User: Fold Sigma-70 family RNA polymerase sigma factor from Paenibacillus silvestris.
Amino acid sequence: MTLQVNLEKLLITCITEHKEHVYRLAYSYVKNQEDALDIVQEAIHKAFASAESLKSTASMKSWFYRIVVNTSLDFLRKHKKLQVVDETMLEAMDSGSEDVYANMDLEIALEELPTMYRSVITLRFFEDLKIDEIAEVLNENISTIKTRLYQALRLLRIRMTEENLEEVR
Assistant:
């Protein structure tokens, strides 16, 4: 009983400390505030429901991030045909307003990457996770993550170079 209570307290602390990061992570997949909040809420529910499956409290952060990533991917699979856009994105797309993103080309190039590459880029550069943490979150080998990161950066570089060349023409 005491072990369960301590585990729940540690989980609450982990969720509280990383709430902005996991929201941003979910948002990076669905691009919609309400859906991202739903994903985070569902991930929290899943975490509490399966807390006893956590093998080590030292890996709680990676374990919870993995739940958020998997919940986001499940959401995308379920809602594949329908792309919901929130008001912030609509305003950004409106021709009468200025771009919300400082670098829209990078945003578009990231969106065009396959999910396995976009996940690695998001976790590494936007969530500031280390390679070994990303491997744990995505349940992959470290060498696989390094390869995907290298390939994703190469694809982004090619895409961004092509766009720059098109602008020059």
Q: What stands out?
A: The domain at 102-169 is CATH 1.10.10.10 (Arc Repressor Mutant, subunit A). The radius of gyration is 18 Å.
